[in-house]
């Protein structure tokens, strides 16, 4: 995998957005530091790259926020973190809808849900997500 393969970084969380940032209203942006696992992927992450927040687990799994990486990965004593700005979607994109889209058949986040954080989406996979986001939640990705 190289930086050119990545259209969007997937940052997974078992915590819902309301827990990550209490009082986070739909369509509002938040600047957060997200924990990531040490790997070669961290060297591929750069400010300005698209990212999304993927809620794992049984309660409303799927894409809950879109945004971008805002800086370099920082190594902290508790582990590496990446700064991001995320906009909470007005309606999450359910995992079940994405699983039904053939463009998502190879998506790492669906094939290996317990895999690496960050995960990533190809351009085709990211398009499948964007096609399901209500227009008022697209921000800079609106067409």
What would your notes on this structure say?
With 143 residues, the protein is of the alpha+beta class. It has one domain (3-133): ph1033 like domains (ph1033 like fold). Strands 1, 2, 3, 4, 5, 6 and 7 form a 7-stranded mixed beta sheet that branches. The protein is globular, with a radius of gyration of 14 Å. It starts with 7 loop residues before the first strand and ends in a 13-residue tail after the last helix. The chain contains 4 helices and 7 strands; from the N terminus they run βαβββββααβα.
List keywords for this structure.
seven-stranded mixed beta sheet, about 140 residues, 7 strands, about 15% helix, globular, alpha+beta, 4 helices, ph1033 like fold
Helices, by number, come to: 4
Mean pLDDT: 91
Remind me, CATH topology?
ph1033 like fold
Helix content: 10-25%
Distance between the termini: 28 Å
CATH class: Alpha Beta
**What CATH architecture do you see?**
Roll
Number of domains: 1
Major β-sheet annotation: 7 strands, mixed
Residue fraction in strands? 25-35%
How much is the radius of gyration in Å? 14 Å
Task: Name the poorly predicted regions.
Answer: none
Computed structural class:
alpha+beta
Going by CATH, the homologous superfamily would be ph1033 like domains
Query: How would you describe the shape?
Result: globular
Number of strands: 7
